[in-house]
Design goal:
The protein is built from 14 helices and 8 strands. It is α+β, with helices and mostly antiparallel strands. The chain has one domain: NADH Oxidase. Strands 1-2-4-3 form a 4-stranded antiparallel β-sheet. It has a 4-stranded antiparallel β-sheet with strand order 5-6-8-7, sandwiched between helices. Helix 2 crosses helix 3 and helix 3 packs across helix 11. The longest helix has 20 residues. The structure holds flavin mononucleotide (FMN). Flavin mononucleotide (FMN) binds next to helix 3.
């Protein structure tokens, strides 16, 4: 089964069709904007010269109470950076990356240099990668594949992968994710800040070219089609749907979880580097026929605890899980998908290159 369904029509999906039509440094940026990123807010901007590319945070596109310290936004910039580096190599550059080179918000400088074109399996997976929110099959992931995945960050300075594939580990992570989702939907500000990124109609999708859409919710096609015909869901209905999917589908069918750990999850360089590893893993999973769905609700709650001074329930539980490995930065579930995932919209290159 192909992990990727046919691309939807409309200009919001053109960046997936046209990603390979560019030359020089723009070819790398065209790949960068296809990366995973929180809630598909696409909080990135690029400055492009012949010999270098600068990657910046776009603070105007933040997630409010869901990401009060911009942890997720910087991880998303790291995901974009990984695609950028892979595409630069594929186009005959030898990119050299400096993380957080100066001003806050300046996530990376990439000096291009010249090299030998390398179009490896991760690069080829760039246009095929999708976040998969469908049920996964009851089929374990071979140990050898997980071991190979765990080695993907060996060249990185501070990021590594923790895997939870046994029953006890999966239960612990899954239970905590469900509990965190329950807290998010009870928190009106967080619930509202998530709802604003939902795009229902084709017109809205074409207008904004960002956010979450019905097609990417992992539903069977007829259910998606009905969902599109119905009136827009209220916030509370959308929250109930999300909690139900988290409980009955996303955690219930996860064959394994992965967690990116870094020495300091509040440090932007760690976040960007961890994002690179996250994207690399997602591309690797895609290349090997695995589905991957990002699930970060306990980090969202942990940051919220820090912001509001609430009892550090999730912060403590996460520290117990990661132990002396470091601090958790991003989490995802893995498994063999029962359905291909649909693409999410992307803004045009002209909107993100300054
Ligand atoms: C740091 C980060 C956090 C994310 N958190 C979640 C999450 O908690 N739940 C979820 O369903 N998707 C999550 N995602 C996936 C994004 O929503 C997804 O990447 C985005 O909508 C673009 O879709 P695509 O990955 O299919 O291109 C996250 C992605 C990143 C990079």
């Amino acid at each position: 089964m192909s992990a990727t369904s046919r691309l939807q029509t409309g200009s919001a999906f053109d960046p997936w069709r046209e990603w390979n039509d560019h030359e020089g440094p723009m070819a790398a940026v065209a790949a960068a904007i296809l990366a995973a990123n929180p809630r598909n807010v696409q909080a990135w901007q690029f400055e492009v010269a012949e010999d270098r590319i600068e990657v910046f945070l776009d603070p105007a596109r933040e997630e409010g109470a869901l990401d009060p310290f911009h942890r997720e936004l910087y991880v998303g910039l790291g995901c974009a950076l990984e695609n950028l580096v892979l595409a630069a190599r594929a186009n005959g550059y030898a990119p050299k990356v400096t993380l957080m080179p100066g001003d806050p918000g300046h996530a990376a400088t990439v000096v291009l240099g010249s090299g030998t074109p390398d179009k490896g399996e991760l690069y080829q997976a760039i246009p095929l990668r999708r976040t998969n929110r469908a049920p996964f099959q009851k089929r374990p992931i071979p140990d050898a594949l997980l071991t190979e995945m765990a080695g993907l960050g060996d060249d990185l300075e501070s990021s590594s992968l923790m895997l939870f594939a046994d029953d006890a580990g999966r239960k612990k992570v899954g239970t905590l994710l469900i509990a965190a989702t329950e807290e998010i939907v009870k928190d009106e500000e967080q619930s509202k800040d998530g709802y604003v990124w939902f795009r229902k109609s084709k017109r809205e999708i074409e207008q904004h070219r960002d956010g979450n859409i019905i097609d990417t919710q992992g539903l069977a096609r007829p259910i998606s089609a009905i969902g599109k015909m119905l009136p827009r869901q209220s916030r509370s209905t959308a929250d109930r749907f999300w909690l139900r999917q988290t409980r009955n589908v996303h955690t219930a069918t996860a064959a394994a979880y992965g967690m990116i750990v870094v020495p300091d999850a509040a440090d932007n360089a760690c976040r960007v580097e961890g994002g690179r590893l996250l994207q690399r893993i997602h591309l690797f999973a895609t290349a090997r026929g695995l589905g991957l769905g990002h699930l970060n609700m306990f980090f969202v709650r942990s940051d919220r605890e820090r912001q509001t001074g609430a009892e550090p329930r999730f912060t403590k539980a996460l520290a117990e899980i990661t132990g002396d490995r470091g601090e958790g930065l991003a989490c995802f579930r893995l498994g063999y998908p029962t359905r291909p995932a649909a693409a999410s919209p992307r803004r045009d290159l002209t909107d993100v290159v300054r």
